[in-house]
Fold this protein.
Amino acid sequence: MSALNMTYAQAAALALQQAMQADANVVALGEDLGRGGVFGQYRGLQQEFGTERVIDTPISEANIMGAAVGMALAGLRPVVEMRVIDFALCAMDEIVNQAAKNRYMFGGQGRVPLVARLPIGIWSASAAQHSQSLEAWFAHLPGLVVATPATPQDNFSLLKASLASGDPVIYMEHKELWGLEGMVDSALEVPLGQARTLCSGSDLTIATWSRGVAPVMQALELPELQGVGVEVIDLRTLWPWDKQTVFESAARSGRLLVVHEAVQVAGFGAEVAASAAEATGCRIKRLGAPRIPVGYAQVLENEARLSPEKIALAARSLLDA
């Protein structure tokens, strides 16, 4: 199939459709899948594959995740829909103590090849309990793979790679990217752990992921960064993450800015920054959200959001240091 223009949600649905057509062991379970999912990311799949493979579940995240772990241990390859990451907090024991640890604790006799879709990020006017970016929690846990696609192409290719990985993958789409359009080549493979360099430069390296990509690219057009050679790297996966690409770029530029929508305190950006500083000795700056709940009012929500202006100012301060 040649490349087609589609949305982030359609790309994910296509990836899952192709995986289900190729492997009868791939199943999906979660709330509202029969009507296509909250964001349309399962549209048409239950009609094609039936209710035994695209399973509508009760509203019990612990039950959904626990059932998926059991399915995976029994030989299926479940895709677990948590709707948003905030709801997955009700299933943390099943993720942390069952899915993540099984392969290690039983000497490889058990494998848990599930993909848990936990959409992250600020969701406009949805306030503190529906707008969290908790990717650092899961990157911290041995046994889990963590993916954070930023484009329709990556949402297709990384979902296919996650389904083939054989280990539990925490798959973190962004709540506000579902309508994003782009070209998707279904033949393009993107391995887990490989970053993407969006533009090249030798003055400053910016590493980001997920919803951070768009405002970073917009920041390059602002006056503060005119004439500056900026290399922008989309990590795409947070574990494993592409240290080589980041380190080589940071060593060339001597400066690294890590940008993420998550709270800056103890965010995954701290791991990237510390690792790069140890490996290259480059100057470091981080930009994330303040350590506050995301407010419902627009003016409060904006305090937690990334913006091109905030990114440009952070980059300028690093360049001028």
